[in-house]
Amino acid sequence: MPKPKLALYWAASCGGCEIAVLDIHEKILDVANAFDIVFWPVALDFKYSDVRAMDDKSIDICLFNGAIRNSENEELAHLLRKKSKILVAFGACAHTGSIPGLANLTSKEAILKFVYKDSASNAANGGGYPQTHSKMPEGDIEIPELWNTVKTLDQVIDVDYYIPGCPPQPTQIWNVIEYILSGKPLPKKGSILGAGDKTCCEECGRERKEKKLKKFYRPFEIETDPKECLLDQGIICLGPATRSGCGGLCIKANVPCRGCYGPPPNVSDQGTKMVSALSSVIDAQDPEEIERILDQIVDPMGTFYRFTLPHSILRRIENS
Ligand code: SF4
Ligand code: SF4
Ligand code: SF4
């Protein structure tokens, strides 16, 4: 009996999701035994032309990581959707936009100007912008066109399932693969796989007493009690606004949750949920004092929407 065909792809991604797949360690051999891997640019030398030549729906499962921020990302998303029976948004970038999605706080023009014109290294060279088409002595060169707005995968193509996390934890990746291999019926389309259905607070192991706060701290500013809830100690921890599933990984290392598993069930906007959680613990009634306390939160957009800006109700700050 032929093995099911597996494809993995990275779009606007840091590569961490690919490494997380390798982090299942020796079980990667089980993956290689169980699947016929037909496309995996980070590890195997397949070409896009190989994928284009495949029959439609001939890939059984495609794990697609990375957000969509240029023409190549979008083209490959459409191509892999056409060729795959099951397509999974794998990791926070594909699921909710994640770190690349913070580019939606500015514009393509501003990014290109900063990187290619104003930065000290390029300004000295005259500040040339990259061109999508160039004629060189060796031949014509084409590079992808950068989009103004970073999108989640499901804002571009139809997605069957989501595996959250930046990156998804290897144990959860293996659980999902094992489940698929077991032949059990797959969950409802659109389900989140490999994560919990509670909030991070409910699995972090620290008791949250919802203490009233007059001051917020950055993690390096105070020595925290390792048993007490970080938010109760004035450290912004996105646990109340984040889906469970990682086992409270960061908090176990005394680092606040930054929200990489995305919003919990029945919450569409992680940032708004976190602002609502904070508003109930601020120890002030006077609007000026509330403002003074909130002003202590450095980089509110980057804090509340670090992983979810393109997926949020805001999507981007400047209009595209
Ligand atoms: S989800 Fe995180 S680890 Fe995965 S590609 Fe995006 S930034 Fe990297
Ligand atoms: S806010 Fe953070 S530290 Fe506190 S209970 Fe929730 S996840 Fe744990
Ligand atoms: S604690 Fe939060 S930021 Fe850390 S891995 Fe879990 S969900 Fe992600």
Description:
The structure is a single chain. By secondary structure, the protein is of the alpha/beta class. The protein contains 12 helices and 9 strands. It has helices at residues 16-22, 27-34, 48-52, 71-83, 92-96, 108-118, 120-123, 170-182, 249-252, 270-279, 287-294, 300-304; strands at 5-10, 36-39, 59-65, 68-70, 84-90, 133-136, 139-142, 146-151, 161-163. It has a 5-stranded parallel β-sheet with strand order 2-1-3-5-9, with helices on both faces. It has a two-stranded antiparallel sheet with strand order 4-8. It has a two-stranded antiparallel ribbon with strand order 6-7. The termini are far apart. The protein binds iron/sulfur cluster (SF4) (3 copies). The site of one iron/sulfur cluster has 13 residues, from loops.
What structural keywords apply?
about 325 residues, alpha/beta, five-stranded parallel beta sheet, 12 helices, 9 strands, globular, binds iron/sulfur cluster
Secondary structure elements and their pairing?
Layout: E1 5-10, H1 16-22, H2 27-34, E2 36-39, H3 48-52, E3 59-65, E4 68-70, H4 71-83, E5 84-90, H5 92-96, H6 108-118, H7 120-123, E6 133-136, E7 139-142, E8 146-151, E9 161-163, H8 170-182, H9 249-252, H10 270-279, H11 287-294, H12 300-304
One iron/sulfur cluster binds at residues 200-201, 204, 206, 208, 229-231, 237, 239-240, 251, 257.
